[in-house]
Amino acid sequence: MGRRSIKENKNIYFLSREEAGLTRAEASEAMGYISESRLDKIENERTAIQPSDVVAMAEAYKKPGLCNYYCTHECSIGISSVAEIQPSSLAELSLGIVNSLSQLNKQKDRLMEIAEDGKITSDEMTDFKSIQENLNKISVTIESLKLWVNQAIADGEMK
Question: Over 90: is that where the pLDDT of 3 sits?
Fold first, then answer.
């Protein structure tokens, strides 16, 4: 087993490997195609990480949230279009979905009125923005639930 690093300011990939209890050699072997030296360069930010590297790490380290981290912090497209997912409990996620859907149910008639003529007028804009915010909240909650399920599977809690 390799020595434990005492480096400060470790990036998320470095920390995730250590949390998984893997040395670079073991991680490299688990991923199959990322060499130890490339992994060292990624962890010490001497080379850019590629999306396929992140997917391999997420699987090897049993940490599916790495993909969301990459998309929201490092991918130029994802930074502007992907919501960062924060870990939550199943209870919180379930209540969030129920609450948002209940709110959307209350807003559906107004959405139909706004959509009826195919235009959003200035007097409809405030209500439309509120509906849009709620839809975004539902989307983030669903993505959070998917991540929760993937993490539970990775942890062996679900099959």
Answer: no
**Rounded CA gap, 150 and 154, in Å?**
6
Structure token pair of residue 94: 């379930």
Residues 100-113 as b/e (b if ≥16 CB within 10 A, e otherwise) read: beeeeeebeeebee
In sequence order, the 6+-apart residues with CB closer than 8 A to the CB of 150 are: 64
pLDDT tens-digit readout, 111-125 = 999 999 999 999 999
